[in-house]
Design a protein that fits this description.
Elements lengths: L7 H8 L5 E5 L5 H14 L8 E5 L2 H17 L7 H4 L2 E4 H11 L1 H4 L6 E3 L1 H15 L9 H13 L14 H19 L2 E3 L2 H12 L1 H8 L4 E4 L7 H10 L6 E5 L14 H4 L1 H4 L4 E5 L7 H11 L20 E6 L2 H17 L7 E5 L5 H10 L4 E3 L9 H14 L4 H7 L9 H13 L4 H9 L7 H22 L3 H11 L2 H8 L3 H24 L3 H13 L14 E5 H4 L4 E6 L10 H4 L15 H12 L2 E10 L1 E4 L2 E4 L4 H5 L5 E5 L13 H11 L1
Parallel strand pairs: 1-7, 1-8, 2-3, 2-6, 4-5, 6-7, 9-14, 9-17, 10-12, 10-13, 11-12, 13-14
Antiparallel strand pairs: 15-16
The chain binds a DNA duplex (15 and 10 nucleotides) through α3, α5, α27 and α28.
Length: 688
DNA sequence: AACTTGTCAATTTTT
DNA sequence: TTGACAAGTT
């Protein structure tokens, strides 16, 4: 492997001998290159067995990409005939490694064989149900997601349910204190783990069982962590356990790009690295290969105003490009129109659509944009949002499989108990739950009893339940023959899923898409069964399926389309042309970061501060390679009221000589400005 | 099960 | 002002 085309710090990171290493990798500084080259170096030059290397990421996509790049490096080295070595690497998300550990050590933990993994939707189901019991009548006043956020933060801080201390006078905290212990007990009762458990339970396991700890502390001789600034406390502890024996940790990240602290990520992990891992070597990658000096200067000028950071300035030897275009529009419609027309102009001059991205703070800002892009006939693709909710049909089939494999999985059972509709209403479910509770048994047992006329149910309901029990028994029997594919097909037939999908869909294409989704699931399951047959393997597969993000299934990168995404969604991406829109106070920085504790229902522990918003702006600015537009509105409707908008403080932090100001409002009418800050801009608008 | 009506909130969402 | 969501109505 040739390390000659790496710069000095990159080379140092790649060749670093052993012990803890932190690579502070600025935006566009070749961070992925360092990780992949380091792995290739370990395998090829140092002869490390790839099975003893673990690389941890936050997304499956990042893991897959990394594996691909390492495979190419190893292949390209000519030192080995086949790229099979890359396949032996442990590369995945924190959660998938946690799940692997739990599956291997299931016995030590005392987890049932058929445990399942609950995703966010499943978790919400649990919380909603508990709320009905705990706060019957007023349960709707509380947002389940907000309670889950609190539970999640508590879990990751290893605060046990019984120790949860509600903040004084915080209603949500008080509800959480009531729900959290019940939630955890319910999960265990359902033989289910949530995402947080996939990290915290392995940590607990490693801490409490010396033999298990020994096994995993020597499983990997080298551990690499990508996006280290996004690790939360429990993930840090997991890493610590994994490298406890040798300290061979290579953490790569950028404290200036930490934008997930609201989810428990702690940017201080980058700052405290030397304290967490004594004797650590720190390498800073600040040469940027992505953006023009002007763009970098703008980004540097903004991030410089954050205090709590390690501190670095990106630099580049690239030739300079055009100034940053700062645009003021009258309102969001005008702003969107400007963006659309500017894109049309650029593509008219030969720029490809796919080289352009429009970034915004909140999804809601995409509305006017989509409208304008459609009008101007600019092809675009939006990432994020919740297009994956269409996967309902897939989740339904999975729920059937889960119930067949694990009868304690109550949330899955409740999902399918009346789907497709079979006349089992809420009242019947309530009765069943009641009888299950009274007899200390599972909902499934109650269903089976009810189906044979056991409970206080009417014949119609008993019949309906019998239908469900028959479908599940049939599914189980079919699965036991080993032919999972026909088992699932049989199930779909029995419950007439296609019929229901056709009836529920508004159009033929919509129902066909859903049927195709189900078919895709069947194909995947069949594929998996070929590799590793049996119930146990299917269960394992279903668990990993809960972790599989939906985006990786169908992200067609092929089309030549403008990308629309939130700033969070843009992390890790780069584009020749970037539009950052809505650069206004209350939008970026978001209003909620400006009012410290006022009714902050969703995020108790996280002190909302502007520094994370500044990092978001920084992430946005550093996505641009050649051309950067920052746009804002003079006025917009807010909660129905037309209000004047103040330019973002971040905009004012960019040195004026780096910008070219354009006021698209000036053409039609006198520009509308508000507050003192805009006086600054007015001055430039007139000199423009 | 499909409708209407009322209430409430209004970021970001890797797993 | 919109919109999502859920309870109440037919």
């Amino acid at each position: 492997m040739d390390a000659g085309h790496l710069n000095a710090p990159q080379r140092e990171a790649v060749l670093h001998e052993g012990g803890p290493l932190l690579v502070v990798a600025g935006a566009g500084s070749g961070k992925t290159r360092v990780i992949t080259h380091r792995i290739a170096h370990l395998v090829l030059e140092r002869g490390v067995d790839p099975r003893h290397i673990a690389a941890l990421t936050f997304t499956n996509k990042a893991a897959a990409e990394m594996r691909g790049r390492v495979a190419r490096l190893i292949k390209g080295s000519g030192r080995t005939a086949e790229g099979g070595l890359a396949r032996q690497l442990t590369m995945g998300t924190f959660h998938s490694l946690g799940l692997t550990i739990l599956q291997r050590e299931r016995a030590a933990l005392g987890f049932p064989r058929g445990f399942v993994v609950y995703d966010t939707a499943d978790q919400m189901g649990v919380v909603r149900e508990l709320m009905r019991h705990v706060r019957g009548g007023e349960d709707r006043r509380y947002d389940a997601r907000s309670i889950l956020t609190r539970i999640s933060l508590a879990k990751n801080a290893f605060r046990p349910p019984e120790d949860y201390q509600p903040a004084d006078g915080d209603d949500y905290d008080e509800v959480t204190a009531e729900i959290y212990p019940r939630y955890q007990a319910a999960l265990r009762g359902f033989a289910a783990l949530d995402f947080d458990d996939l990290i915290t339970e392995p940590v607990r396991l490693l801490r409490e069982h010396a033999d298990v700890r020994e096994r995993w502390a020597s499983a990997f001789s080298h551990v690499l962590v990508d996006e280290y600034q996004d690790t939360n406390r429990s993930q840090l502890l997991m890493v610590k356990e994994l490298v406890a024996r040798h300290g061979n940790l290579c953490a790569v990240g950028d404290d200036d790009q930490s934008i997930y602290s609201w989810r428990g990520a702690d940017p201080r992990h980058i700052q405290d690295f030397e304290r967490d891992f004594p004797g650590a070597r720190v390498v800073v990658l600040d040469q940027n290969y992505r953006s023009t000096p002007t763009i970098l200067a703008s980004a540097n000028a903004v991030i410089r105003n954050n205090t709590d950071r390690r501190g670095k300035e990106l630099w580049s030897t690239r030739p300079d490009g055009p100034p940053v275009t700062a645009v003021t529009a009258v309102d969001p419609e005008a702003e969107a129109k400007f963006v659309a027309q500017e894109i049309a102009r650029l593509t008219g001059d030969g720029r490809r659509h796919r080289d352009i991205a429009v970034l915004y703070r909140s999804n809601i800002q995409s509305r006017e944009l989509e409208e304008a892009l459609r009008t101007t006939r600019v092809p675009y693709v939006m990432v994020g949002g919740q297009q994956f909710y269409e996967r309902k049909e897939v989740k339904d089939v999975i729920a059937y499989l889960r119930v067949a494999l694990s009868e304690r999985d109550e949330i899955s059972l409740r999902r399918i108990i009346n789907y497709p509709a079979r006349g089992v209403g809420p009242t019947t479910v309530e009765k069943l739950l009641h009888s299950a509770h009274a007899r200390h048994t599972t909902l499934w047992r109650a269903v089976v009893d009810g189906a044979s006329g056991g409970g206080e149910l009417r014949p119609a309901q008993a019949d309906a339940l019998a239908g469900l029990v028959a479908a599940i028994s049939e599914l189980r029997a079919a699965m036991d023959t080993g032919d999972v594919q026909s088992a699932v097909r049989g199930l779909i037939e029995t419950i007439d899923l296609h019929g229901d999908l056709r009836a529920a869909s508004t159009s033929l294409t919509a129902s066909q898409r859903r049927i195709d989704n189900v078919e895709a699931l069947i194909r995947q399951v069949t594929e998996q069964q070929k590799r590793k047959p049996g119930r146990e393997a299917l269960l394992e597969y279903l668990r990993f399926l809960s972790l599989a993000s939906d985006s990786e299934e169908e992200r067609d990168d092929g089309g030549d389309r403008v990308l629309l995404t939130t700033l969070h969604g843009a992390k890790g991406l780069e584009f020749p042309v970037v539009f950052l829109i809505g650069v206004e106070e209350e939008i970026l920085p978001h209003a909620r970061s400006l009012m410290p504790h006022a009714n902050d229902v969703s995020d108790p522990d996280h002190v909302s501060d502007v520094s994370e918003e500044r990092r978001l702006a920084y992430v946005g600015l550093t996505r641009a390679q050649e051309m950067l537009y920052v746009t804002r509105c003079a006025s917009r409707r807010r909660h129905g009221r037309q209000v004047l908008c103040t330019p973002s403080r971040f905009l004012l932090e960019i040195p004026e000589q780096l910008m070219e100001l354009r006021d698209v409002a000036a053409e039609s009418r006198e520009p509308v400005h508000a507050g003192e800050l805009s006086a600054f801009f007015q001055k430039f608008a007139t000199t423009d």
